[in-house]
Write a structure and sequence with these properties.
Elements: E1 2-7, H1 14-25, E2 30-36, E3 41-46, H2 52-61, E4 68-71
The chain binds copper (II) ion.
Copper (II) ion binds at residues 12-13, 15-16.
């Protein structure tokens, strides 16, 4: 399993974190998603077939683009 942390500047309230957790959580292969309103960080753990490209593409699609990779 791979865990990544992204900064998502568009997070502004609890609805944002809920949307991200729900949408990314539905992606096949994603094991867990934790979005934090205060730090605007999203921690995602995933296995195949999910990958960073598909996760970032989904975040962009739901209007919460990831700013960068913080840690592998
Ligand atoms: Cu919000």
């Amino acid at each position: 399993m791979t865990t990544v942390t992204y900064t998502v500047p568009a997070i502004s309230c609890g609805h944002c974190t809920h949307t991200i957790e729900t949408e990314v959580g539905e992606l096949q292969g994603v094991q867990s998603v934790t979005a934090d309103e205060a730090t605007k960080k999203v921690v995602i753990s995933f296995d195949d077939p999910a990958n960073e490209e598909s996760i970032k593409a989904l975040l962009a699609e739901i209007n919460y683009p990831a700013e960068g990779l913080i840690a592998l």
